[in-house]
Amino acid sequence: MSETSPPLNSETLAVLLARHRHNPTRLMQILREAQEALGWLSPQTLSVIAKGVDLPLARITGVAGFYSFFHTEPRGRYRVLWSDNITDRMLGNQDLMQAMCKSLWLEPGHLSEDGLVSVTTTSCTGMCDQGPAILVNYRAITRMTAQRVAEVCELIRNEVPLDDWPKDFFVVDNNIRRRDILLRNDMTPGDALRASIARGAEAIKEEASNARSWREGAHGAAAGPALTLDEIKRSNLRGRGGAGFTTGLKWEACRNAQGSGPDPARYVVCNADEGEPGTFKDRVLLTEQADLVFEGMTVAGYVVGARKGMLYLRGEYRYLLDALESVLARRRADGLLGNNILQQAGFQFDIEIHLGMGAYVCGEESALLESLEGKRGVPRNRPPFPVTHGYLNQPTTVNNVETLAAAALIAKNGGDWFRTVGTERSAGTKVMSVSGDCERPGIYEYPFGVSIAEVLADCGAKDVQAVQVSGPSGVCVAPNEFKRRIGFEDLATAGAFMVFDESRDMFEVARNFSHFFAHESCGFCTPCRVGTTLLKNCMDKIHAGHGTEYDIKEIMTINQLLQTASHCGLGHTACNPTFDTLKKFRPAYERRLKSLAFEPAFDLDNALAQARQMTGRDDAGAHLATSE
């Protein structure tokens, strides 16, 4: 990625647009590559791109303005983003960021006067097990300390290219603490596909042995996908992204759906946009088990009849792109992607990687599809659902990274094998992202049914006050609930497991989450756009010492608004952390409240107190305040 911001280079843009065939559905990738080449997206650059893809400039500008990682103003040769998740705050990110800004002589959120560097925050970089973390030109640096801040500042001041920075700066650890069937598997690439194809071949042989005609027996070639689908359904695999929809039923609906238009098609999409604070399991799966994930996508393509797959990778994981592209290239060379996969006539499937650009809402599958089509990531109205009207209005199955990895194992080993792990309603394992107040943060893979207490014991957590399961949109669990178990019958989770000990202020935890939701609201619907901001303002008012019982009631009203009128799940869950902490840790709120029925957020008399002192009018001001 370029660190400079040269003037508009028409030749660069012409080559870029030609490589993407001037296709407007590839707008996200065109904008990203243009920004990486030119430093930022100037009005001239956007105009050239708009003309190149034959879209209105307003549409291009709207997309560029929607995603926080697109820059329509200069951000400097070095763009530093501090992860501002609650776990990073617990590790001192705010003081370290202030030290960096002081050293570089700039204000947070602003470009330095010499145009060299900007420093600001982002919601969560997916490095919660090794924070505080930063992204420098979207390359991750973990475990920031005062010494490392000084070293980074020195490198920036000396304008050292990132490629010449110390290599150990960019080391991201996987921190795998417990492995089970996913993370300890040693499957050879292609095994799941061979097993799937073999099922079809076995069906042909069986038909032939039953003395059926060759014409009838030829239908056995289509039996491989159907039989593999049977195994997925038999396994009771459910989506690992949090919602828990049955994977076999989703694939079956996509397989049976009819495409539309002159060129009907089906698609497989892997959702690797894990933007939920506290979640980083997909990062590790894509690092440790990329072949397994891509194999699961290819199995899905085989089952539903898709020829194209797309992995939507969150922008914070830009540093993984080259390694993942290398895995795809190897799989193509080995005959595991492309035409006639494993010499199976007609088996055609390939995978592209698309990068998101910093929008949490794109974790919602329909918003993700909008982004893949080169649009703002605004969730769609449903129905229709993606399995019938997904990418480009064609049947599409959207699955989580972990779900597809599990599907590959099922295709190889069978559904009955998979069901021997976990519980009756929650088959298989769950990969947990453990962070916060514990001795051994990292990745833990357990069979479904593990208790909160078991995970806490394994990660070395002591004096635990609370656990936030499944991130801000999930559930806050108090000590009297630590016997509860991870599973769809009790605590469903996308994977985040954030630990808070007795030293933590649970009000501040909830306040951080309220800021997250207000920042990440896509702005499409008024209830969410306004409601998340009102919630954040209420929490800030309480934090500032102006809160009363009135504000607690106001939070209840905002929650009702968000629950009943929001367009998508972001608004529906935005009040979850506030409600949970109010219910289970109410003293954290009450010690901040005043006894008045209402207290304004702004205290005019207090704001003027310093001025009255300086002018010798403090007594008069007090008299005025009393008389009013």
What does this molecule look like?
- The chain is an alpha/beta fold and 628 residues long.
- The protein has five domains: 10-66, Arc Repressor Mutant, subunit A (Orthogonal Bundle), CATH 1.10.10; 78-173, Glutaredoxin; 191-419, Rossmann fold, CATH 3.40.50; 429-504, Ubiquitin-like (UB roll) (Roll); 507-590, de novo design (two linked rop proteins) (Up-down Bundle), CATH 1.20.1440.
- The protein has helices at residues 10-19, 27-38, 43-53, 57-66, 86-90, 93-104, 146-157, 191-209, 214-217, 223-235, 247-256, 281-288, 290-304, 321-333, 365-372, 401-413, 415-419, 452-459, 506-520, 526-543, 549-565, 569-573, 576-584, 587-590, 604-615, 618-627, and strands spanning 78-83, 117-122, 134-136, 139-141, 176-178, 267-272, 308-313, 350-355, 396-400, 429-436, 442-447, 464-469, 475-477, 496-501.
- Helix 19 (506-520) packs antiparallel against helix 20 (526-543).
- The protein is globular, with a radius of gyration of 26 Å.
- The termini are far apart.
- Residues 1-6, 212-220 and 620-628 have low confidence and may be disordered.
Q: How many helices in DSSP terms?
A: 26
CATH-level-4 superfamily name of the largest domain: NADH-ubiquinone oxidoreductase 51kDa subunit
Percent of residues in β-strands:
5-15%
Principal-axes shape call: globular
Number of domains: 5
Distance between the termini: 62 Å
Number of DSSP E strands: 14
Q: Which ranges are low-confidence, i.e. pLDDT below 50, for 5 or more consecutive residues?
A: 1-6, 212-220, 620-628
What name is given to the CATH topology of the largest domain? Rossmann fold
Computed CA radius of gyration, to the nearest angstrom: 26 Å
Helix content: 40-55%
Question: At CATH's second level, what is the architecture of the largest domain?
Answer: 3-Layer(aba) Sandwich
